[in-house]
Amino acid sequence: MTIRLPDATGALRAYEPRREPVAVTPGAAFTSRTVFSAAHVVADPFADVSPDSPAAVDWDATLAFRRHLWSHGLGVAEAMDTAQRGMGLDWAGAAELIRRSAAEARAAGGRIACGVGTDQLAAGTLDEVRAAYEEQLAVVEESGAQPILMASRALAAAARGPEDYLEVYGHLLRQSAEPVILHWLGPMFDPALEGYWGSSDLDAATDTFLEVIAAHPDKVDGIKVSLLDAQREIDLRRRLPQGVRCYTGDDFNYPELIAGDEKGFSHALLGIFDPLGPLAAEAVRVLDTGDAKGFRELLDPTVELSRHLFQPPTRFYKTGVVLLAWLAGHQDHFTMVGGLQSARSLPHLARAYELADGLGLFPDPGRAEERMRNLLSTYGVNQ
Question: In sequence order, which residues have a C-beta less than 8 Å from that of residue 187 and are 6 or more positions away?
């Protein structure tokens, strides 16, 4: 049986869904790489909210999805941009998410790291930015999770140059109880972060970033790089101090970066591993055996889907991520906090379904097809 899907021109074409999912099984943590999946939040579809209201979260479904990721050996990167930080989820909601997920991680024996930012602050002075970071760092540390120092819109607006980044990050690293992950998020993910680290020249910004790390190598577990530039990430990881990891955040080039080369490799902290979780875990276990070719054979075919979801405007990739979670049966609806389910076109969503189905990502392909038919019908597409 076929399903009619709209293409980029709006024309309908026939697609025949696959009948069987890819065969993967849950398993233990990995031995060769440290891998986090940034995880989305599930909205409460019955909450009476407006786009300006605080996010209404379905906590049961949200935490169940984290247990799904942990069951496959993946760590969870919590309250990151995949969870719609700054795009529907405010700091109050993020703080509750951090506390709940950290408690769930302890119960499940799962690894968790949580985002520390300044999103309780729209704008402010450097002192106010520092205080906002400190408040969030305290919440994450008290929860027992590893902190991820996220890029700050408020710091990008307040900083006068590289010296302000050195001062703020140096202060935070000196007071952190345990080593943190530093997150460099490019402006393709958040336009307000243009010129981060004090310069729009990426070479100059990289030098400042490395200066922060070099001054506090004992307080930096690793860096997450989300610039969608594979060679720049490779060059950067080769300049890191001994013992500081590079976690790729490159959703365009992750297979080659994780596989690595004769001079090293990247670990992973990726939003695309939200929908790819079981398949990505299977691939990393193959890599654990030393089989880089087998790893690439499993993961390379997923890049087309990832590049589709993360196409410009990249910050709206979350819409495709949540669509696939619904189609896969991890939640009962395609509703997002802030109404972000409307951020991508129907042809974009249809292509996401087709690519994910082709990879065998849906545990129940028949259910995914039925749900896609229902979505199409709300747009007036009759099968």
Answer: 193, 194, 196
pLDDT tens digit sequence for 35-63? 999 999 999 999 999 878 899 999 999 99
Question: What CA–CA distance (Å, rounded) separates 6 from 49?
Answer: 31
Determine the Cα–Cα distance for residues 281 and 261; give it in Å rounded to an integer.
Answer: 20
Calculated CA dihedral for residues 82, 87, 91, 92, nearest 10 degrees? -100
Q: What pLDDT, in 10s, does the model give residues 71-81?
A: 999 999 999 99
The one-letter code for the residue type at 150 is: M
Look at residues 146, 89, 112, 139 and name the one whose alpha carbon lies nearest to residue 38. Answer: 112
Q: Are 151 and 193 in contact (CB under 8 A)?
A: yes
Residue pair 260/252 in contact (Cβ under 8 Å)? The answer is: no
The structure tokens listed for 185 are 């998020």
Burial of 17 (0-12, 13-18, 19+ CB in 10 A): middle
DSSP H helices, 238-364, are 254-259, 273-288, 292-299, 303-309, 317-327, 346-359
pTM for this predicted structure: 0.96
d(CA 69, CA 192): 30
Q: How far is CA 350 from CA 89, 216, 377, in A?
A: 26, 47, 12
Contact 354, 15 (CB under 8 A): yes
